Amino acid sequence: MKKLNLIIILCLALVACKSENNQSDTNKEDTSKSYNQNDGFITMRGDFVYYADAAVLQTSNEIYGVVIDENLKALNKQTEAFKKEPTDMVPVTVRVRKFKKKEGEDGWQYRVEIKEIIKVEAPDPNKKDVIKLAN
Asked: Which domains are assigned to the chain?
C-alpha cells in the first residue's frame, strides 16, 4: 500500500511540473525577431549615437564604429524620437556583423554592420553619466 501511494504521489508531481512548464511558455514574449539565429550575426545591446558623419555603438565592454548604410539610417530614424539633443545616446538591441577595421584606417578597433534592428528603448532619465560643459 505504501508503494502504491508513493507511485501516485510521484506521478502527480511529474504531471504538475509538466503543466507548470507549459503555462510559463505561453507567458513568454512571442517576437518574430530572434536573438539566437544561426546566421553568423551577433546580437548586441548598447548605447547608439549617430552624429554628422560618424556612428558609435557602446556596449558595456567595448566601443564599436558603425558602418554607415541604409540600416544605420533606419536605426537613426527610430532613435530620433528619444533624443533631446543630437548627441544623446539611445539604448538599442541590434543584430550585427562584427569585424576588425582595415589597417591604416582611423577609428575604433572593431566595426559593426547593422543587419537587423530588434529593439529601440527610451534612455533612462535617472542615469547621471552625462557631462555638460557650461559657457
From this structure: 42-120 (2.40.50)
Give CB contacts under 8 A, 24+ apart, made by 71-78: 71/113, 71/114, 71/115, 71/116, 71/117, 72/114, 74/117, 75/48, 75/50, 75/114, 75/117, 75/120, 76/50, 78/117, 78/120
pTM: 0.66
Calpha distance 69→129 (Å, rounded) = 29
8 A C-beta contact, residue 94 and residue 114: yes
Name the DSSP class of 78: H
Beta strands per DSSP E along the chain: 42-51, 54-58, 63-66, 90-100, 110-120
Query: Looking at residue 102, what is its pLDDT?
Result: 87
CA–CA distance, 37 with 2 (Å, rounded to integer): 50
What the block records as the C-alpha cell of 84 is 533631446
Alpha helices in the chain (DSSP H): 2-27, 70-79
Closest CA to 118 of 54, 49, 46, 24: 46
**pLDDT of res. 100:** 92
